[in-house]
Amino acid sequence: MELIEWLRTGTVGIAHRDLAVAQGAKLSHIRAAVRTGEVRAIRRQWLATPEATGELVDAATHGARVGCVSAARRRKWWVPEGVDDSLHLHFRAHGRPADFEGVAHWNASVAPASHTSLLASVEDCLSQIAVCLDPESARVVWESAIQVEKLSIAALRGVRWTSRAAKELAECSSDLSDSGLESLFLTRLSSWGVPLRQQIFVAGHFVDVLIGERLIVQIDGYGFHSSSAQRSSDVAHDAELRLRGYTVLRFTYSQIVREWPTVERALSRAVAAGLHLAA
Questions:
Q1: Can you tell me whether residue 274 is helix, strand or coil?
Q2: Which letter does DSSP use for residue 228 in this model?
Q3: CB of 180 closer than 8 Å to CB of 144
Q4: Across 12-20, average pLDDT
């Protein structure tokens, strides 16, 4: 495969020179492609197509890696609405972000990334998120990362985190949340002092959250409850739960993210009425 074709089809337009060599490209061919303008060299080590733009190109240009929430989004971690979409770059300890208008991170690396990657390592991203976002948003992103990357809670707690915020998140984060939306819900209720349990098997199916002994909350995120068959199954399970003496409250993505005071008030009224207590 020609170098330019490989860059366009397999590497989103930019790749480290060592990867190109590993794919069989000869250094003489790379130099020739750069001389003719067929390929653009960025800081000598990175090769890009002439038209390549975006976060990875910006990172290579500045001698940095994409980090924090920018890397989280690229890794498909769930980032709450309202978190700014500025580019976050992770610079070396003494790097100078000349002409960089985004958010710069200089934290000491917790787990170095491969020299051929323009993304900060998973652990470095988590470390940056812990100090860059508010505690609620940070925990939501952490728990999404745990699910997406299949991270071990025990391993996270064994990492030598460089900030108190990261250490605290490693201790309190859970691997039980099926979605970032569920993490957001649990994080917001964690200060209530009411027992909260996730993914409990009741009446033949798992329920999202069990508050106390009898109050069940089901969370309908995007896509998971949209089909007619799934909706029918949800309704049938809700009916069975009620027949067994449970109170069932079901909330949507929009309600939890954009109408939280209304959701919180409904839950508060349910707890005040003792609907979470055993009969």
A1: coil
A2: H
A3: yes
A4: 91
Please provide the DSSP assignment of 72-124 as one string. Answer: HHHTT----TTS----EEE--TT---TT--SEEE-PPPSSPPPTT-SB--HHH
Contact by Cβ (8 Å): 138, 70: no
Backbone angles phi, psi at 153, to 5 degrees: -60, -40
Phi, psi of 40 (to 5 degrees): -100, 130
Q: Is 150 left (phi over 0), alpha (psi -120 to 50) or beta?
A: left
* Overall size of the chain counted in residues: 279
Using one digit for the tens of pLDDT, what is the confidence trace for 37-57?
Answer: 999 999 989 999 998 999 999
- Write the CB contacts of 258 (distance below 8 Å, at least 6 apart in sequence): 81
How far is the C-alpha of 87 from the C-alpha of 197, rounded, in Å?
A: 36
Residue 156 sits at φ, ψ, to 5 deg, of: -60, -40
Three-state DSSP at 216 gives strand
d(CA 204, CA 223): 22
Q: How many CB atoms lie within 10 A of CB 2?
A: 11
Give the alpha-carbon dihedral of 142, 144, 147, 152, to 10 degrees: 0
| pTM for the full predicted model | 0.86
